[in-house]
Design goal:
mainly alpha
C-alpha cells in the first residue's frame, strides 16, 4: 500500500477539517492563578485545533507533507492559504510566550516536542514560503528543552502513549540531523545507554490505550542511531530469536472507536506498520525482512479503513497513516 494521490487528497481534506476546529479541545494547562483562566485560542492561536495541541501540530505536519508530495492536487492551494494565515510571526510569538511560562516546563513533554521539531523539519522543505523561518524560534526553544530533559532523564519511559521517550527522540533526531549536531550526539548517547543492552523482549503489549509499541519504537530509534551492521544482530536478539515478533506482533482489535483512549489502538496498528516498514531493510536476514513487510501490510490493512469516521480518531490518525505509508 502506498500514499497515492487519492489517499493524499482524502487525508488533506480530513486535516483541513480539524486543524482550525476549536472545539472539542483537551487543554494541557497548569493554572498558576485565576489570571490563567482563558480560552485555548488565546494561549495557542496557532495550535488550537484538532482536539489538543500535539494533534494540531502533527495535523499541520500532515498537511505540509501532503502539499510537498502532491503540489498539483486541488487541496494544496487550501493548505497554503490556511498555513499563511496561521503561521504568522504574531501568532507564533504567543505560542512561544506560553512555552516560556515557568509552569509550562513540562508542557507537551516529550510527544509534542518531537512533533513540533518534525513540523519545522517539514516546513523547511517548502522553500517557496517563510513557514520554517517563522517556526524556528519555537523549534529552537523545544530543542533546548529536550537537551535539558535528556540530561536529567535517568530511565526511558517505555509506555505506548504520549510519554514514550523513543518516539519523540526519533522525530527530534531527524530534525537535528542537519541543524544541531550536539543534540544528535546527546540523543545517540542517551539511546545507547537506555537500549543497547536490552535483549529478549518479553513485555506485555498491547496495552488497552496504546498507540505506540514500546519495543518497536525503541528499536526504530536504535536503527537510526546505530550502524546497520550493529543494529541487525541487536534487533534479532531483541524480538526475532525469541519468537516475539512472529508470535505477538499481530494487528490489534478496536472495540469502540468513540472512546478516545480505546481508539488509540488504531494508531498502534499504524505506528507498528511504520516501524516494521522502516526497519525491514535493515535486519539483514531476508526471511525476517519479508515477514516484517507482511506484518506491516497486515497492520496497515487493519487500520486504514478507520482513519476517518469518529472524531476521536479522525483528529490524529492520518498523521500516523502517512508515517506508515512513507515508512519505506
Amino acid at each position: 500500500m502506498e500514499l497515492s494521490e487519492d489517499i493524499a487528497r482524502n487525508f488533506a481534506r480530513i486535516a483541513l477539517g480539524h486543524v482550525a476546529r476549536a472545539y472539542p479541545y483537551k487543554d494541557d494547562h497548569v493554572f498558576g492563578s485565576a489570571a490563567d483562566v482563558r480560552a485555548p485560542q488565546e494561549a495557542h492561536p496557532v495550535f488550537f485545533g484538532s482536539f489538543d495541541w500535539h494533534s494540531c501540530v502533527h495535523g499541520w505536519w500532515s498537511l505540509l507533507t501532503l502539499r510537498r508530495l502532491y503540489r498539483a492536487m486541488p487541496e494544496a492551494a487550501a493548505i497554503t492559504e490556511l498555513a499563511e494565515a496561521t503561521f504568522t510571526p504574531e501568532k507564533l510569538a504567543v505560542e512561544l510566550a506560553y512555552l516560556e511560562r515557568p509552569l509550562s516546563r513540562g508542557f507537551e513533554r516529550p510527544y509534542g516536542w518531537g512533533w513540533l521539531l518534525y513540523l519545522h523539519d517539514e516546513a523547511a522543505r517548502h522553500d517557496d514560503r517563510e513557514w520554517a523561518a517563522r517556526l524556528e524560534p519555537l523549534a529552537l526553544a523545544f530543542a533546548a528543552r529536550l537537551k535539558d530533559y535528556l540530561r536529567i532523564l535517568t530511565y526511558p519511559i517505555t509506555v505506548g502513549t504520549h510519554f514514550n521517550t523513543a518516539f519523540a527522540l526519533i522525530l527530534a533526531r531527524r530534525w537535528a540531523a542537519e541543524r544541531d549536531p550536539d543534540l544528535v550526539v546527546l540523543i545517540d548517547d542517551w539511546a545507547n545507554r537506555a537500549f543497547a543492552h536490552r535483549s529478549d523482549y518479553a513485555g506485555w503489549e498491547p496495552g488497552g490505550d496504546e498507540f505506540l509499541s514500546p519495543v518497536l519504537t525503541a528499536a526504530l530509534l536504535m536503527a537510526e542511531v546505530s550502524p546497520h551492521l550493529a543494529f541487525a544482530p541487536w534487533f534479532d536478539a531483541l524480538v526475532v530469536a525469541n519468537g516475539w515478533l512472529e508470535r505477538e506482533c499481530r494487528p490489534v482489535r478496536v472495540s469502540d472507536r468513540s472512546d478516545g483512549k480505546i481508539a488509540h489502538l488504531d494508531g498502534l496498528n499504524l505506528s507498528r506498520a511504520w516501524c516494521l516498514r522502516a526497519m525491514a531493510p535493515l535486519v539483514g536476514d531476508a526471511a525476517t525482512a519479508t515477514a516484517m513487510q507482511a506484518l506491516a501490510e497486515a497492520h496497515l490493512e487493519a487500520a486504514m479503513p478507520h482513519v476517518a469516521g469518529d472524531y476521536m480518531g479522525e483528529h490524529w490518525l492520518a498523521s500516523f497513516a502517512i508515517l506508515a505509508l512513507l515508512g519505506r
